[in-house]
Amino acid sequence: MINTLYLPELREMLERRDDPALREFCTALHPARTAEFMEGLSAAEAWSVIGHADAALREEIFGYFGHDRQSEIIETQELEGVAQLVADLAPDDRVDVLDDVHPDRVHQLLELLPADERHDILRLRLYPDGSAGAVMTTEIAKLSESLTVTDALTELGRQAEHFETIYYLYVVDATDHLRGVVSTRQLVSAMGRPETRLGELMETDVVAVNPMDDQEDVARQVAKYDLLAIPVVDRERVMVGIITHDDVIDVVREEATEDAHRSAAVAPLDTSYLKTHVLTLGWKRGIWLTILFAAAILTAGALEFYSDQLAKWEWLVWFIPLVISCGGNSGSQSATLVVTALATGDIALSDWGRVLWREILQGLLLGLFLAVIGYVAVSLIQPASSEVFPSNALVVPVTVLLVVVSGTVLGALLPLLFQRLGLDPALMSNPFVAGIIDILGIVVYMSVAQWLMS
Amino acid sequence: MINTLYLPELREMLERRDDPALREFCTALHPARTAEFMEGLSAAEAWSVIGHADAALREEIFGYFGHDRQSEIIETQELEGVAQLVADLAPDDRVDVLDDVHPDRVHQLLELLPADERHDILRLRLYPDGSAGAVMTTEIAKLSESLTVTDALTELGRQAEHFETIYYLYVVDATDHLRGVVSTRQLVSAMGRPETRLGELMETDVVAVNPMDDQEDVARQVAKYDLLAIPVVDRERVMVGIITHDDVIDVVREEATEDAHRSAAVAPLDTSYLKTHVLTLGWKRGIWLTILFAAAILTAGALEFYSDQLAKWEWLVWFIPLVISCGGNSGSQSATLVVTALATGDIALSDWGRVLWREILQGLLLGLFLAVIGYVAVSLIQPASSEVFPSNALVVPVTVLLVVVSGTVLGALLPLLFQRLGLDPALMSNPFVAGIIDILGIVVYMSVAQWLMS
């Protein structure tokens, strides 16, 4: 949804070159709202508007623009101004945006940046998408353990505006090895003892991650320890960056959406639903639908194989969708429960025995209950076909029980197997589990029918 | 997974009443890890161990225990000690734990608490689960706008340990109306101008939420504005609490898991997968499976209705699972895309026209592609039945196209409809969408067959 409240006024101000009014617009609101009110403007218009804010504020408002708008501005607006902006952006955001800018343009921009920033960008761009290195920022408050509380507060006062977070001060040695952490809370509490050294205040049991760690693991650590930021260190424990709480919330949300898409057999989108091109979306859905379709063709083959039996007991056909759907549904439930429990850390691979046992119980419980309902349903529908009771009436209930148990067991074990193989368990999507159980369901159904009726 | 590394040592220390060693154990590590190492102990043992920490640390370690352990300790351990602990806990965590403690015990505890804490607990307990009021904390750094930077820093130094977050100072008037916010970053940056008043420093455009707001909306606001905490105000903008970043991460993770469960037709669990009682889990799955089973019985009715047709063209049966599964799968994809896009705010109800248009396109694109594959598959499987070509060979492809389009359109519109009705769109679970499309699929299939072959 685009907020069009201020669009006419903004366009008029731009036309009249009403600089004071535009400046006022940039400063009056929270930068996120300022960005929101500009959503309807073209990239060029938005760029002119934020040109009226000072560098720090311009960078902040820009940070709240959508990703597409950001890359469009960087790609199309006047090079020198854009280079200035890129230099001001937080290191992690900068790398993120440049990822979607044409390589030639990135090259031109890099040439205009100071050497430090250029190296920083080139280094951060090396980390793969989804790694801790790709979401970390490199502007960190690093202090020496010999500093006193007063020194640290003064240093903080001087530098506060340059750092993405000042709520943890990381204490490092001369070669940047992480030695400890002091929270601003501790520092402020210690103001009464101004000569205390950071080395005495700091906590030395610091939770840290590696730049190549999966961003999902990072989010889990931050959530577990209730952190505002987590330091990123290399193998020698040299500090290379931090990941802050706001990036962690974004990671958690992004991963949740990706998992939801995977569980419905959609390859994760790179951008929002409405912005994904129809053909891209078609591709991300089509590959999975095609795989599932291919699996479903096997069901046709299986039913053809049993065609004599189906011709003999015509009423068997009526219950095909019923028996396969209850296997698919119970399988999807189990798969989702196991995938989410793995993601939140509620279960680990080593719990497979307990999971299996629980799912067998669930399968028996749910299967028996549905079998009873199935028996009633068959009794109501089947008599019309005047077959012989009672063994025939048991075909559907017995199949339902077996299929539901297979569903819960397979649904639980397949994600665990994927995890064991080092694959993402969420790839074992619900339709995929359901597809496997469809075929199994048909084989079980026909075998049970054969066994009970002949 | 339970970490058993220190269990024998801990038990030995308890037996020997080795107080210094136990004190050392409590203080040596991050409280989250201390809690982790105690997972294998009984509630009584864990309670004895943390008895060796001072009140602040005990409260912190306790905060990292699992929810079940927390309520077990409160329910079973010595009343006075527990009351002391409850008084020390953060207001939001306290209410959360007491929710699962027997009402009689809660009553006994409340009698032992100071009047302030008692009223606070009673008030917070009134907010429904999932509301902002239920996750907020009431220990907030509230300051007057006439304070200077120096006053504020001194005040902060005195109180830092009592507040859940000190990174935002909320500026209120004499009757607690929220006037503005000063970040500790701003305060620290302004240390060079110690006489500046908070009224001059503060931002007045403060994003706030209402205690009855949905926790999911709160998380969205915090993520959007990259906040560390968000104030909770009543209708008169009197400040009643704040919600901090760590609670927001928990909310986001909790909601993601709940949505995943709903999308697989499992009613959200109150606790973790392994801790949910088999019967509770069976109930949360069974109600939905039963509803879906009832819907599936309709498919049996539908097929019985078409039994003459199925007897005449026997090969039609073979493709029943195929045509209904491709509708269900494309429907699940659309439903999940729409539900996640609604949750992240990428689309709003007002976008329904664009969504519908995109899904019709997706349906045509994917449907045509699968229809072509379907044509090839039918040609390979069907000839064995020696029916007349070519119109017969078109039955499956035409059905696939129609069913996939119905799937994408219904899958997209049903969650939007639920949203419009004020219900949670995630209730429109994938199996539910698939179930509806199963029946529709059979009707479409049989109608297409009737039309093309007679």
Q: Could you please describe the fold and organization of this structure?
A:
The structure is a homodimer of 454-residue chains. Chain A has 454 residues and is mainly α. Chain A has three domains: 7-126, Alpha Horseshoe (MgtE N-terminal fold); 142-244, Roll (CBS-domain), CATH 3.10.580; 278-453, Tetracycline Repressor, domain 2. Helix content of chain A is 63%, strand content 6%. In chain A, the strands form two sheets. The first copy, chain A, has a three-stranded mixed sheet. A two-stranded antiparallel ribbon of chain A has the order 4-5. In chain A, helix 6 (67-76) crosses helix 7, helix 15 (215-224) packs across helix 16 (245-263) and helix 17 runs parallel beside helix 22 (430-453). The first copy, chain A, is elongated. Chain A starts with 6 loop residues before the first helix and ends with a helix. The model of chain A has no long low-confidence stretch (mean pLDDT 86). At the A-B interface, helix 12, helix 13, helix 15, helix 16 and helix 17 of A face helix 12, helix 13, helix 15, helix 16 and helix 17 of B.
Which features characterize this protein?
homodimer, 454 residues, mainly alpha, MgtE N-terminal fold, CBS-domain, Tetracycline Repressor, domain 2, 3 domains, three-stranded mixed beta sheet, two-stranded antiparallel ribbon, 22 helices, 63% helix, elongated
